[in-house]
């Protein structure tokens, strides 16, 4: 795992000292909120509905056990004993006191973590495939380049006041688990004639004007990468619409100018940036790479795994849904669901964090990952240890076997926390999960992604949910609009609206009717919800939503 | 003819705790909506807003929120203000736990 250099450590310590002084000046009244707000946002501190919120970056979603334990400590010492893992591989604390935040940041720095550039019009936390370095289908580990980008973008003097936020994601596998097409800039590692390079996508984003990213360059070599990315950001930095924040993201710039014009401008700018880079970036990359070297994988028999798999149906069910294929023989990637039915998606208690940290230290080569789907991953575990791991997880409410299923919902904080929200999203997720758990048909339904946002900003990725739910305020009433057919994978697609929205009490039955329609329409159990939708289209789902609605039928 | 004025309260978040506060008639910040000063006159409400907005070492994001008069004091008219005076619905945290 990457370990801070002296430079990194000094930089973070300095920033924390500065911010401590800024907080003190805010509290003694010498800074107004207008003066302080941009400073706190640069350090990840928001003000939400009921309290401040501190957003901590988990670069490319990677944590070691000491870091996870520190996150648990912070949750207990300064918050309400839990943390919320988000779709951008951050953790959010919902209840800090302003006066405690400097201490929290110092505690984070002790384990090489911080909250810098988790907010504001900067290049945000760089996200990556949560199976990085472990997945069987991977071309190369995306984390070294994510770390390179992090170092390049952190405090980059030209990019501290961008037109708007700028989000980067990296995948090293053709199976895109990082929703790269929904990012301002995305890198997909590709191989051409034996050389590793990057396909670069730009202009993706969700929010009020969702767009799928477009390939601006299908192969950028390692040595051209940083100058190329810098050229993209700098072209946008000049063209981006600072006059209108709703038009400021690069997706709008690409849309307004056209991909061809942007590509030409980037190529032109690249001539300059390329000349300015002296190769130090390549040397740096070479020092970063070995820090992500794979652990020494053990060669052991998997008979303990097989025995438990045959004997214990609960373990088998968990193994079937929560394990993914590892590149090393005898190993698995274990996904820990932070989506127990009826619980807040993405929330883990301090105790649960410690349990996961202990398991990672004992069995998992000391590595943990946070996925954009708000779950925790043990990327490297030997199969023979899985029965023991599963037993420990189960004892702490962490063995829910629902990865990729209808209750594995992404939900943004919505109006329970977020000041921008127009409706709640967490309780909708809780109720959908509880309902389908009662019906006992989750396994039968199979792969189905529900994603919920509490306003058009789309932090809950609803546009790319197979079923997307968007909470709105319609004349003072919480109303939920449904979209169908969204896809967050390498075949990224935006969902289509079904029609009028549903009230808070109607949304769960509406989802149930959609699922019933799917079960009736599918050719067989192997056809997923998304595949069925693509084959039969909107009509049967629309009919299920609007013609079979008991309330609407009764009203006629 | 001018439209009828919807009654208001002054609300904000506290500087240190970040929690929801309301201005009462004696110029103190209170944590409870029911104790807030009910502002029924538009000109008076605007004046109170200007005064409260200057207290930037105590409060953040001061604004006027719509309310209606209830038996025990001002009541929210919109669900957002109802959540603000209560706390989140997924945990028993925030104001509901402090009463
Ligand atoms: C204080 C809470 C939050 C605020 C104020 C906030 C604000 C916003 C805004 C304004 C946008 C729209 C940006 C645009 O279209 O230009 C946005 C998008 C987004 N946010 Fe948040 N957000 C919050 C919480 C979260 C959380 C908890 C997550 C992760 C679970 C998240 C992840 C995202 C994502 C993935 C997008 C859409 C992708 C994109 O940027 O286009 N946000 N957020
Ligand atoms: S989608 Fe809206 S409600 Fe949800 S976290 Fe983002 S800004 Fe808040």
List keywords for this structure.
heterodimer; A: 556 residues; alpha+beta; Sulfite Reductase Hemoprotein, domain 2; Sulfite Reductase Hemoprotein, domain 1; 4 domains; six-stranded mixed sheet; five-stranded antiparallel sheet; 39% helix; B: 99 residues; 24% helix; binds iron/sulfur cluster
Describe the fold and architecture.
The complex is a heterodimer of chains A (556) and B (99). Chain A is α+β, with helices and mostly antiparallel strands and 556 residues long. Chain A folds into four domains: 6-110, Sulfite Reductase Hemoprotein, domain 2 (Alpha-Beta Complex); 134-290, Sulfite Reductase Hemoprotein, domain 1 (2-Layer Sandwich), CATH 3.30.413.10; 303-395, Sulfite Reductase Hemoprotein, domain 2 (Alpha-Beta Complex); 410-553, Sulfite Reductase Hemoprotein, domain 1 (2-Layer Sandwich), CATH 3.30.413.10. Helix content of chain A is 39%, strand content 17%. Chain A has 19 helices and 21 strands. The longest helix of chain A is centred in the first third of the chain and has 22 residues, at 6-27. Chain A starts with 5 loop residues before the first helix and ends with a helix. With 99 residues, chain B is an alpha+beta fold. Chain B has one domain. Chain B has three helices and five strands. Chain B has helices at 42-53, 79-86, 95-98; strands at residues 8-14, 20-23, 29-30, 59-70, 73-76. Chain B has a five-stranded antiparallel beta sheet with strand order 3-2-1-4-5, with helices on both faces. In chain B, a hairpin with a 5-residue loop joins β1 and β2. Chain B is globular, with a radius of gyration of 13 Å. The N and C termini of chain B lie far apart (43 Å). The model of chain B has no long low-confidence stretch (mean pLDDT 95). At the A-B interface, α14 of A face α2 of B. Iron/sulfur cluster binds at residues 412-414, 418, 420-421, 453-455, 457-460 of chain A.
């Amino acid at each position: 795992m990457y370990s801070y250099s002296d430079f990194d450590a000094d930089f973070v310590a300095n920033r924390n000292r500065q911010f401590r002084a800024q907080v003190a000046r805010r509290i003694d009244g010498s800074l107004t909120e207008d003066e302080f707000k941009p400073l706190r946002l640069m350090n990840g501190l928001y003000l939400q509905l009921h309290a401040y919120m501190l957003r901590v970056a988990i670069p490319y979603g990677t944590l070691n056990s000491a870091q996870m334990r520190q996150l648990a400590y912070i949750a207990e010492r300064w918050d309400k004993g839990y943390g919320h893992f988000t779709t951008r591989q951050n953790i959010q604390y919902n209840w800090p006191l302003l006066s405690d935040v400097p201490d929290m940041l110092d505690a984070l720095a002790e384990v090489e973590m911080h909250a810098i550039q988790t907010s504001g019009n900067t290049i945000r936390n760089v996200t990556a495939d949560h199976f990085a370095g472990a997945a069987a289908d991977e071309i190369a580990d995306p984390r070294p380049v994510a770390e390179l980008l992090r170092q390049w973008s952190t405090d980059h003097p030209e990019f501290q006041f961008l037109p708007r936020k700028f989000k980067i994601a990296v995948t090293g596998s053709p199976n895109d688990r990082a929703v790269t097409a929904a990012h301002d800039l995305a890198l997909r590692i590709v191989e051409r004639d034996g050389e590793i390079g990057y396909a670069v996508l730009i202009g993706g984003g969700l929010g009020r004007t969702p767009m799928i990213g477009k390939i601006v360059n299908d192969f950028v070599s390692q040595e051209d990468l940083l100058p190329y990315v810098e050229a993209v950001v700098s072209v946008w930095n000049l063209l981006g619409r600072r006059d209108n924040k709703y038009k400021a993201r690069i997706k709008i710039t690409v849309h307004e100018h056209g991909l061809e014009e942007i590509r030409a401008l980037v190529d032109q700018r690249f001539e300059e940036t390329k000349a300015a880079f002296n190769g130090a970036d390549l040397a740096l990359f070479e020092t970063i790479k070995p820090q992500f070297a794979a652990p020494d994988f053990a060669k052991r028999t998997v008979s303990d795994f097989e025995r438990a798999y045959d004997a214990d149906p609960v373990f088998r069910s968990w193994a079937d849904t929560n394990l993914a294929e590892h590149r090393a023989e005898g190993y698995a990637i274990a996904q820990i669901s932070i989506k127990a039915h009826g619980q807040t998606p993405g929330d883990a208690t301090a105790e649960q964090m410690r349990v996961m940290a202990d398991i990672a230290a004992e069995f998992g080569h000391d590595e943990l990952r946070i996925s954009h789907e708000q779950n925790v991953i043990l990327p490297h575990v030997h199969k023979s240890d899985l029965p023991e791991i599963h037993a420990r997880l189960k004892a702490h409410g962490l063995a829910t076997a629902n990865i990729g299923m209808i209750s594995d919902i992404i939900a943004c904080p919505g109006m329970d926390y977020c000041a921008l929200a127009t409706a709640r999203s967490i309780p909708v997720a809780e109720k959908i999960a509880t309902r389908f758990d009662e019906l006992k048909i989750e396994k039968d339904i199979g792969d189905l992604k529900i994603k919920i946002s509490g306003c058009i900003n789309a932090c809950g990725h609803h546009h790319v949910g197979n079923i997307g739910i968007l909470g709105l305020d319609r004349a003072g009433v919480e109303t939920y609009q449904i979209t169908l057919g969204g896809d967050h994978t390498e075949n990224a697609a935006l969902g289509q609206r079904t029609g009028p929205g549903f009230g808070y009490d109607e949304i769960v039955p509406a989802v149930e009717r959609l699922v019933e329609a799917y079960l009736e329409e599918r050719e067989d159990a192997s056809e997923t919800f998304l595949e069925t939708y693509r084959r039969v289209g909107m009509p049967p789902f629309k009919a299920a939503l609007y013609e079979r609605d008991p309330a609407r039928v009764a009203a006629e | 003819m001018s439209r009828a004025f919807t009654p208001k309260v002054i609300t904000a978040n506290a500087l240190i705790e970040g929690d929801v506060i309301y201005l009462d008639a004696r110029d103190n910040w209170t944590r409870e909506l029911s104790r807030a000063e009910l502002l029924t006159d538009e000109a008076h409400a605007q004046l109170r807003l200007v005064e409260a907005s200057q207290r930037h070492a105590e409060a953040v994001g001061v604004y006027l929120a719509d309310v209606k008069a209830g038996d025990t004091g001002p009541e929210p008219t919109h669900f957002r203000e109802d959540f603000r005076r209560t706390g989140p619905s997924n945990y028993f945290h925030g104001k509901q736990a402090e009463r």
